[in-house]
């Protein structure tokens, strides 16, 4: 299985809410499509996976490196309890400011919902992170990517097929 297909398989196995979070951030920040609606971002990311997996072995591996680096930069802190301290405090601050009648009242309802759902989101992200780290250790580390690329290159040179 190609590295980008392994990432796609991991991604589609996630909870829909996590898929949406990842897709929106990746598509808007990494791909640069800042006009994408959150609902359309999932389709756009799946399309990106498909286009990259249809390329050469080097394009596939480089797409995996790009996704890996972007994903870890944007989301690795969500795999630990410490990574949730700032969001939790921010939601509490927004709710407190809304109670005091400050400007934050415009987003207080969303902050309250996010704060209420935080324990469930933490659990989902921890599980996703555990599976992500297993994927990194087995398929997406630099050595595994180099080996896969070399195997695919040699297989195409000699007319062999490998997965």
Describe this structure as you would to a colleague.
This protein has 7 helices and no strands. The protein is an all-alpha fold. The protein has helices at 3-12, 16-31, 38-53, 57-75, 85-99, 108-140, 142-157. The chain has a domain at 3-76 and 120-157. The model has no long low-confidence stretch (mean pLDDT 91). The termini are close together.
Topology:
Blueprint: H1 3-12, H2 16-31, H3 38-53, H4 57-75, H5 85-99, H6 108-140, H7 142-157
Helix pairs in contact: 1-3, 1-6, 2-3, 2-4, 4-7, 5-6
In short:
This protein has 163 residues and is mainly alpha-helical. 77% of the residues lie in helices and 0% in strands. The longest helix has 33 residues, at 108-140.
Distance between the ends: 5 Å
Q: How much of the residues is beta strand, in percent?
A: under 5%
Radius of gyration: 19 Å
What helical percentage do the residues reach?
A: over 70%
Please state the oligomeric state of the protein chains shown.
single chain
- Round the mean pLDDT to the nearest integer and report it: 91
- What is the chain-wise order of helices and strands? HHHHHHH
Alpha-beta content class:
mainly alpha
- Let me know the largest β-sheet: none
Shape: elongated
**Low-confidence spans: pLDDT under 50, at least 5 residues?**
none
Helix count?
7
The total count of strands amounts to 0
């Amino acid at each position: 299985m190609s590295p980008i297909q392994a990432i796609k398989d991991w991604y589609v196995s996630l909870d829909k809410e996590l898929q949406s979070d990842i897709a929106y951030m990746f598509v808007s920040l990494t791909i640069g499509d800042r006009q994408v609606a959150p609902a359309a971002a999932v389709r756009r990311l799946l399309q990106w996976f498909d286009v990259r997996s249809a390329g050469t072995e080097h394009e596939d591996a480089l797409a995996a490196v790009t996704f890996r680096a972007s994903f870890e930069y944007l989301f690795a802190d969500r795999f630990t309890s410490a990574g949730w301290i700032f969001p939790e405090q921010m939601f509490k601050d927004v709710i407190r400011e809304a109670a005091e009648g400050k400007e934050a009242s415009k987003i207080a309802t969303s902050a309250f919902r996010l704060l209420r759902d935080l324990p469930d989101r933490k659990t989902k992200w921890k599980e996703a992170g555990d599976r992500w780290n297993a994927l990194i250790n087995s398929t997406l580390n630099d050595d595994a990517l180099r080996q896969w690329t070399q195997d695919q290159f040699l297989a195409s040179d000699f007319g062999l097929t490998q997965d």
